[in-house]
Every structure is written in C-alpha cells, then in structure tokens.
Amino acid sequence: MIKCTRISIAALVVLALLLVALVATSCGGRTTTQQGAGTQGVNTGNPTIDNAIEKLDGQMDSVSSDDFNDSQLNDSELGL
Amino acid sequence: MKKGVMTAAIALAMMLAVGTAVAGGEQPRASYPRSSAAEERQDARSEMLQQRIDLVITRFNNNKERHVATYQAMKAEVQQLISTLAAQGYDVAKITSDLQTWDQMIIKFAQDYVSFINLLEATKAYIPYESEGQFAAALEQARAQLRVCRQDSLDIRLYYQQTIRADIAELASQKPGSTAP
Question: Is A56 part of the contact surface with chain B (CB cutoff 8 Å)?
C-alpha cells in the first residue's frame, strides 16, 4: 500500500515537472522582444491597414539586432 | 730576470685566453637572426589581425546597410499609408509625429554606427605586442560602442512594435471623413 502511494507521488511529481517544462517552453518565445515584430495576426477590418501591417512586420522580422552582437568581435585564433 | 719573463709570458697568455673567450662569447650574436624571425612572426600576426579587423568591418557594414535599407523602406511604406489614409479623411497627426521620432532613432543608429567603425579602425593603429594594452583598450571601446548600436536597433524595433504598429492599427477604428476638414 505504502509502495503504491510512493509510486503515485513520484508519477505525479514527474507529470508536474513535465507540465512546468511545457508551459516554460511555450511562454519562452513570447516574452522576447527580439524575435517577431508583433505578428500575432492582423485583423483590424480594414484591408489597407491589415496589408500594410503585415508587410511592415515582415520587413522588421527580416533584420535582427543580433547582427550587432559584440560576440562577433571575438576571434579565438587571435586571442580576442 | 727569467722569473719576470715567465710571469710576463703567463700574463700575456692569460690575456689572450680571456680575449678569445670574450670574442667567443659574442658569437651568440647569431641570436640576431633568431630575434628577427620572432619579429617576422609578430609582423605576420599583426598583418593577419589587421586583415581580420577589415573583414569584421566589411561584415558589420553589410549588416548596417541591410538594417538602414530595411528601416528606410519601412518608413516609406508608412509614409505611403499616411498619404493614402489622409486622402480618405483619416486623422494621421499622431502617426505623422511618431514617424518623425522613429526617423530620429534611425538617424541615431546610423551615427552611432559610424562612431563604432571609427573606433574599430583605430584599433589597427596599435600593433599588438608593441602596444598590446592600447590595442586591447581600443578594442574594448569599439566593443562598448557596438553595444550602443545594438541597443539602438533594439529601440527601433521596440518603437515600431509598441508605437508605429499600434498607431496604424488604431487608425482602423476611426470613421474616415468625420474628422476631415
């Protein structure tokens, strides 16, 4: 009986950990301001505005601030 | 008398021996070629370093051109939209003003970037080994300026997301013509 309870608790803990990991993974991408220009779907009811926003989102997503990451100045071969 | 001659001969022999030893000691002057080989290695490394820095500058310039071209294209797109919507009677005062702020941010990014490249170019003036401290300090300055450029590009992105995009979306809620003169 005690053994059965211990196994159930262990299974519950594993399930809880899995759930936490799943939630963390799904939230991780949304909190960043780096990726995605706010492309959560555009539907203002005005096609001119919707098209403009979609086009602008695509343009903004075509560049990344990581292009100016200072790690790009590192050069291990030269000891930098 | 004979003793004196003997002593003089021994002294002369000793002087000769010391002279030969001293002359022999100078022979390691063959270390000159060794030091020049080291200098050659240093020169080669310095040259390689300068080439690497040139390569980095080219890469960053390409990135900067791509970013500025994108921002300019986006600005033109928004301006076009403003013209279209203004002609239809939309009130575009807020987005017009915010677009100017955004433009200033793009100009700041381009200016900070020029400073970064200048600092990176300056590192080439310091040859490592001979002025390693100055080289490292100059590189650190360039690195700090690069962080400013990166922050500028993040600010541009954030301003688009939170202000420009929101302004455009908000225009859809207007009743065209109701605020037009």
Answer: yes
The count of domains in chain B is 1
Q: What's the gap in Å between the CA of A51 and the closest CA on chain B?
A: 10
Residues B168, A52: contact at Cβ < 8 Å? yes
Looking at chain A, which residue has its C-alpha nearest residue B42?
A78
Whether residue B25 lies inside any domain: the answer is no
* Contact indicator for B117, B61 with CB cutoff of 8 Å: yes
State yes or no: pLDDT of B16 exceeds 60. Answer: no
Q: Is the pTM of this model over 0.80?
A: no
Residue B3 counted as domain residue: no
Q: Which of B63, B77, B143 sits opposite A73 (nearest CB)?
A: B143
In a domain, B33, yes or no: no
What are the pLDDT digits (tens) for A34-58? Answer: 445 555 567 888 999 999 999 999 9
Domain that residue B160 falls in:
42-171
CA distance A37 to chain B (A): 6
Tell me whether residue B121 is in a domain: yes
Burial B71-96 (b: 16+ CB within 10 A, else e): beebbeebeebbeebeeeebebeebe
32-51 in chain A: CB under 8 A from chain B:
33-34, 37-38, 42, 44-46, 48-49
